[in-house]
Amino acid sequence: DAKTTQPPSMDCAEGRAANLPCNHSTISGNEYVYWYRQIHSQGPQYIIHGLKNNETNEMASLIITEDRKSSTLILPHATLRDTAVYYCIVIKYGGATNKLIFGTGTLLAVQP
Amino acid sequence: EAQVTQNPRYLITVTGKKLTVTCSQNMNHEYMSWYRQDPGLGLRQIYYSMNVEVTDKGDVPEGYKVSRKEKRNFPLILESPSPNQTSLYFCASSPPPARYYGYTFGSGTRLTVV
Question: Over the stretch B7-50, which tens digit does the pLDDT of each residue have?
């Protein structure tokens, strides 16, 4: 599975959009980009995923570049409860395993 | 409410005393797995299960056992716990094909082995 690179930390003002980048330059054609977050030692929470098209759900938007080598998770109106570690994960499904490989993630601190 | 339930949330035990951490999901998911989380090492997969009676090792299976006799339950067994198994443990489940869905994680079990 492709490795990902994320900044270790970011700040965002409450009410503003939070844009979290992820680099996955070695991604292959059948690998998906997933985003999870973990709020202070709680279980990781699935946010969104995509293959090559941009995606949006009630939590966030995912923008994947045309060459698929990077992506951005957008939280449109960040709140204090969005303070968490955000993980970008690339995974290929199929075969005998569906393992999530968590990196170190980005600690997003939403400031009042 | 759709959820993955782990018990107990907190456990302190002594070296060598067998213990079981239970995991149950009410979403009829086929895939289940266990992860441990340690400072500086992140989340690592211990075991996973593709379906009833189908289990396999993850990245760090030493010292752990699992079983999948029913679809909803996937207990993690530590036959002889040691201090290096002190960690935060998470159970997760997903329907197939997992590429269309995310994993649902439990709230975690913080285990301390003294």
Answer: 999 999 999 999 999 999 999 999 999 999 999 888 999 999 98
Instruction: Give the residue from chain A lying closest to B31, CA to CA.
Output: A98
If we measure between CA atoms, which residue out of B89, B76, B81, B86 comes closest to residue B63? B81
Can you read off the two tokens belonging to residue B86? 């002190």
Q: Hey, are the CB atoms on A102 and B107 less than 8 Å from each other?
A: no
Interface touch A103/B42, C-beta < 8 Å: yes
Contact A38, A84 (CB under 8 A): yes
* Chain B hits for A43, Cβ within 8 Å: 4, 90, 92, 105-108
pLDDT at B96: 73
Task: Tell me the C-alpha distance between A53 and B15, whole Å.
Answer: 50
